[in-house]
Design goal:
It is built from no helices and 11 strands. It is mainly β.
């Protein structure tokens, strides 16, 4: 089995920073892209940031210049450094990874359980 476990969410004030982590574990042969998505109440899930296995990154327009995605391939972990947080960043943040398990010859899409980020004064 493969699972993604997120950590680092919480309640912060506008302008503060948070760092999210997501560790992939289990029968992992290889990991391709990893990323973060978020879903606010009443809204669709949207891409926050993504990173390839080679380190190329892509960001949603609303977080460019404030958020930074990175990964540690040795630890199968992806991070999201969030700076200058705004109230509109409040959402459940989900980790995503495209993984080939040892027991499968194909890639599959995996999701974490989500972590709440609330930005409020």
């Amino acid at each position: 089995q493969v699972q993604l476990v997120e950590s680092g969410g919480g309640l912060v004030q506008p302008g503060w920073s948070l760092r999210l982590s997501c560790a992939a574990s289990g029968s992992i042969f290889s990991i391709n892209g990893m990323g973060w998505y978020r879903q606010a109440p009443g809204k669709q899930r949207e891409l926050v940031a993504a990173i390839t296995s080679g380190g190329s990154t892509n960001y949603g327009d609303s977080v460019k210049g404030r958020f930074t995605i990175s990964r540690d391939n040795a630890k199968n972990t992806v991070y999201l450094q969030m700076n200058s947080l705004k109230a509109e960043d409040t959402a459940v943040y989900y980790c995503n990874a495209v993984i080939r398990p040892y027991y499968s010859g194909s890639l599959s899409n995996y999701w974490g359980q989500g972590t709440q980020v609330t930005v409020s004064s």
